[in-house]
């Protein structure tokens, strides 16, 4: 029997995201007025380009993650402003090295222990974050931090045939 679960989580805005948004808006207005006053002939074109670029950068801060579990494979994708989709990881759960609650195990993780760390969670401070460590064929030893539902957790445990580290 096939197991299929799909779940989306919207990344919470951080202080850094808010600072980025305010900076983008402020810079766009400043450049708009400079271009309109200093370059009156081409100021409208430069201002339009500035506004379009500012909008694209501003909207790229809206991030969602989609987890798709099919049998013993889980795909984690990053969705930017509900327009662009990028696959962060395709994980064969049979190759899972470790799986557990991230907040309980945070002290045992070090950036230098992993070739790649994939952040795909709602909020880094959440107690609902889990981690999977895998030996990825392309990246090597990889740590994936994400915010799954109970259904995904039980499916991962079943597919990986490992106990959760609680």
What are the key terms here?
166 residues, alpha+beta, 4-stranded antiparallel β-sheet, 4-stranded mixed β-sheet, 8 strands, 34% helix, elongated, disordered C terminus
Shape: elongated
Strand order of the largest sheet: 1-2-3-4
Largest sheet: 4 strands, antiparallel
Q: Whole-number average pLDDT?
A: 84
- Radius of gyration, CA atoms, in whole angstroms: 21 Å
Tell how many strands the DSSP assignment holds. Answer: 8
Give helix and strand order, one letter per element, not per position: EHHEEEEHEEEH
Low-confidence stretches: 162-166
> Could you tell me how far the N terminus lies from the C terminus, measured between alpha carbons in angstroms?
28 Å
- The secondary-structure class comes to alpha+beta
Count of helix runs = 4
- Helical content stands at 25-40%
- Relative strand content: 25-35%
Description:
The protein has 166 residues and is of the alpha+beta class. It has four helices and eight strands. It has helices at 15-38, 43-59, 102-105, 150-160, and strands at residues 4-10, 63-70, 73-80, 84-92, 96-101, 116-120, 130-136, 140-146. A hairpin with a 3-residue loop joins strand 3 and strand 4 (84-92). The model is unreliable at 162-166 (pLDDT under 50).
List the helices and strands and how they pair.
Layout: E1 4-10, H1 15-38, H2 43-59, E2 63-70, E3 73-80, E4 84-92, E5 96-101, H3 102-105, E6 116-120, E7 130-136, E8 140-146, H4 150-160
Parallel strand pairs: 6-8
Antiparallel strand pairs: 1-2, 2-3, 3-4, 5-7, 7-8
Provide a concise account of the structure shown:
The protein is of the alpha+beta class. The chain has 4 helices and 8 strands.
């Amino acid at each position: 029997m096939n197991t299929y679960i799909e779940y989306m989580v919207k990344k919470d805005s951080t202080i850094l995201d808010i600072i980025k948004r305010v900076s983008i808006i402020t810079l766009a207005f400043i450049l708009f007025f400079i271009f309109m006053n200093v370059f009156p002939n081409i100021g409208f074109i430069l201002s339009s380009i500035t506004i379009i670029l500012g909008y694209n950068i501003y909207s790229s801060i809206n991030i969602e993650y989609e987890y798709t579990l099919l049998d013993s494979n889980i795909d984690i994708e990053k969705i930017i402003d509900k327009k662009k989709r990028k696959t962060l990881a395709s994980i064969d759960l049979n190759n899972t090295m470790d799986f557990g609650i991230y907040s309980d195990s945070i002290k045992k993780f070090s950036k230098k222990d992993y070739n790649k760390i994939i952040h795909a969670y709602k909020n880094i401070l959440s107690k609902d974050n889990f981690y999977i460590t895998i030996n990825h064929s392309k990246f090597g030893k990889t740590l994936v931090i994400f915010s799954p539902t109970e259904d995904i957790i039980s499916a991962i445990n079943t597919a990986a045939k490992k106990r959760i580290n609680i």
